Amino acid sequence: MQAVTYEFARENFDKVFNMLPIQEDGLIIVKGDKNYVLMDKDMLDLVTETYEIYRDKKLMSSLKKAKAEIEKGEYFTFEDVFRPVFSFSREQESFTLQK
What we know:
Blueprint: E1 2-5, H1 6-11, H2 13-19, E2 27-31, E3 34-38, H3 41-55, H4 57-71, H5 78-82, E4 86-89, E5 94-97
């Protein structure tokens, strides 16, 4: 993440604004002892969503438990779950409903 001074940002707004697509994670604008972040709305949405997931203690606990189960090999594949209902052809990447 690149940083510019507030004065530079104010005097060169077009340049700063056009830097955003290049700076995917945003641009820090420094004004005195404060730092502000200018970023694309999609990136803000992603950061906000990630933060909301992180704040949800129950969800985070569930994700950690699931990760541990996967690392121990305690999981079912798609084929394990749906083999009785579908036959799957990897070569054709298609499913056939079994009767």
